[in-house]
Design a protein that fits this description.
Length: 298
């Protein structure tokens, strides 16, 4: 069976508000083949998201010029819990895309990493509930009427779900509504989705976002004709392995994740990972494909 990809690029995103490297910053792992078709690996640790985006664009373009297809895995949600787009009264059509466009209009992420993610969470809360829910978590200095440092209440009947279907399936995945503190992914999603949107816009049909644009189904080489990049959500904590000497946790996770998907691809097993579990309820599949997204391999 033919390999689906020639390169595997894994991104550990960060919502840091100032330039930073090392732990809890942006890490990009690139696993690709050299001229002799042997795997080579390189890790990058850009200090800002702007640098990271420029670097990613260059990596993807370089692979495309070589007629090589890339799997781009990002470690933040590419969609929100079911019902989010409708609750915000966003334009009809594809809910995931309406949310992406809305976030792009709202997010301000400057070259020095200063950003308004807490303001975005606060404004969405205002539109959804008029209070500090469902988004929560911020430094005390960023406290607003509609965004509090601590969670103010649990999700109940009539609320948007706390978790997406895939967060439950992944066991241990954080809720997108959590914007701050260890393990939070909300800030990364708010700042990361507009970045992936820009990469997608620059490449048009040559970049597909799974499962929204590819369908939530097994993928074969024929499904990806003319496609240079497939972007997917990944969850590096699902993949276990040892660190190299002196390697920090974030760097280890992107490397292991890239190696994991490359090994599956070499064995002809990666295409099946893009499909739902056979026991998945039909509404879960629809929610994942239209709005929530899914974690590759969960």
């Amino acid at each position: 069976m033919a390999r689906l990809f020639n390169a595997y690029v894994i991104v550990d995103w960060s919502a840091a508000a100032k330039p930073t490297t090392g732990a809890d910053s942006v890490w990009i792992g690139v696993l690709k083949r050299d001229v002799r078709f042997r795997f080579t690996y390189e890790a990058h640790n850009p200090a800002t998201r702007a640098e990271a985006e420029k670097l990613l664009a260059g990596i993807l373009d370089d692979r495309a010029k070589r007629h090589e297809r890339t799997l781009l895995g990002v470690d933040f949600p590419l969609g929100f819990p079911r019902g989010f787009s409708a609750a915000l009264n966003l334009p009809a059509g594809e809910p995931w895309l309406a949310v992406w466009n809305q976030l792009d209009r709202m997010v301000k992420d400057k070259a020095d990493n200063t950003n308004n993610r807490f303001g975005v969470g606060s404004e969405i809360n205002r539109r959804l509930t008029g209070g500090p829910f469902p988004f929560w978590g911020c430094p005390p200095r960023d406290t607003l009427t509609t965004l509090q440092p601590k969670r103010t209440r649990e999700h109940g009947p009539g609320d948007l779900p706390e978790f997406r279907h895939t967060d439950v399936a992944a066991k241990g995945a954080a809720s997108i509504w959590k914007l701050y503190y260890n393990g939070s992914v909300g800030g990364q999603a708010i700042l990361g989705i507009p970045m992936v949107r820009r990469l997608k816009l620059a490449r048009g049909e040559a970049m597909k976002v799974w499962p929204f644009e590819t369908g939530y189904k097994a993928l074969a080489d024929g499904d990806l004709a003319g496609v240079d990049v497939v972007a997917a959500e990944v969850y590096p904590s699902l993949i276990k392995g040892a660190a190299l000497p002196g390697e920090i946790k974030d760097a280890t996770q992107v490397r292991l994740t890239a190696e994991h998907f490359a090994k599956l691809d070499e064995a002809g097993k990666l295409g099946a990972v893009f499909a739902p579990d056979k026991a998945a309820p039909a509404d879960t599949v629809v929610d994942a494909q239209q709005e929530e997204g899914w974690i590759l391999g969960a």
